[in-house]
Amino acid sequence: MTKILITAAGSYGDIAPYTGVGARLRAAGHEVALATHDSYAPLVRAAGLEFRRLPADPRAPHTDTADAADTADASDASDAAEQARPTRPGGRRDLMRQATSFIKELGGGLADAAREDTGLLLLSATTAPLGHHLAEAQGIPSLDLPLVPGAPTGDFAPVVSGGRSLGRWGNRTAGRLSLRIIDRLYAGAARELRARLGLPPASPRTVRRRAEAAGRPVLYGFSEVLVPRPTDWRTGLDVVGNWWPWHTPDAQLPPAVEDFLAAGPPPVFIGFGSMAGGEGERLSTLAAAALRRARVRGILQSGWAGLTTRHTSTDDDILTIGEVPHALLFPRMSAVVHHCGAGTAAAGVCAGVPTIPVPVTADQPFWAARLASLGVATAPIPFQELSADHAVARLAHAVTQATAAPARRDRATAAAHRLAAEDGAGAVLKAVEHLTS
Prior knowledge:
The chain is of the alpha/beta class. The protein folds into 2 domains: 3-242 and 422-436, 3-Layer(aba) Sandwich (Rossmann fold); 255-420, Glycogen Phosphorylase B (Rossmann fold), CATH 3.40.50. The chain has helices spanning 12-27, 41-46, 76-83, 92-113, 128-138, 167-197, 204-213, 255-262, 280-294, 326-329, 342-351, 364-374, 391-404, 406-420, 424-436, and strands at 3-7, 31-36, 50-53, 120-123, 142-144, 218-220, 237-239, 268-270, 298-301, 318-321, 335-338, 355-357. The strands form 3 sheets. Strands 3-2-1-4-5 form a 5-stranded parallel beta sheet, sandwiched between helices. A 5-stranded parallel beta sheet has the order 10-9-8-11-12, sandwiched between helices. A two-stranded parallel sheet has the order 6-7. The protein starts with a strand and ends with a helix.
């Protein structure tokens, strides 16, 4: 039995997958704690894991965060900046200053969350650049568990580029530049953390290069169904499949949802996760109009945007819900409309239903492009285009395309069968047992 500390920071999509990993490790006999923000303490404890607090909660009143949405190594700079987005409009300098503050606060929290008897650190993308110093100070192994591809490759550009290839040389160059930006962003926090831990000075770039030279293993929690392992990645960088949020084996949809599903044909899901805060009224009205125009029923997930049927006159055909496991809900849908965070994108594929991607920021355009290229999604509709005059017609057309095309659903079903054969959490368990044996 090993005492394992998982660290994860960000929004729901950055945290929830690690509850599934932690539960799998706990079932194998390990003692597992998950350090994250206060907002997710119930989620962590429900999975049977010990909760440890990390500061800089993105849902706290003093911040106005967008969905880091499952961003990873190559987009950590964007991720941290999104977590620390100013409440008032500001320039890039203001954004980066608040991102640096977020990271500095996070570094102190990581040190506080660690215990002397910790035997292994499992690190999300946002916490890894700081967690490596903690592992060095304690003399224990660590394992990086990012949710999206981050190591430079010629196969595609960094995920924050939106899926547009720059050519093999350009892709690799942009990937290396992304890592250097991350190094600069974490430099101050790393310096303070190393001093607190009694470690000699070393820059994030130096620590990162040591890890690369040593061949430190990294397990990526996404599926090769969506992103095949890059051909030029070094040994030790492995794509193992998705990690799914934990929920009880006997979990069921709420009775109100079951009643709605039973009352008519499968509806279309619309939700934006941790995106679009404060735009609930506009988006709810738009969504209701698009569903009505496409002649389909719908389920709106309120999320941080606050979608609700209060702004519509079609309450009988549209249901508003709160947090519901996608694993239970998505297979009952005729199609899903969402922002294409990594976890939500994978959940749609796993459910075998077509997707209408509406990417907002960070890695979301990357995943939207991947879904479309796989043939399981319509052409992406960038979120900013939902404010145009033709937004209702465009969204309605995409919904019709997704629900009326058998070929797209057939491809989604085939992809779902492939995802079902993967065991991402099992791969983490094997790696953990190898590191601690």
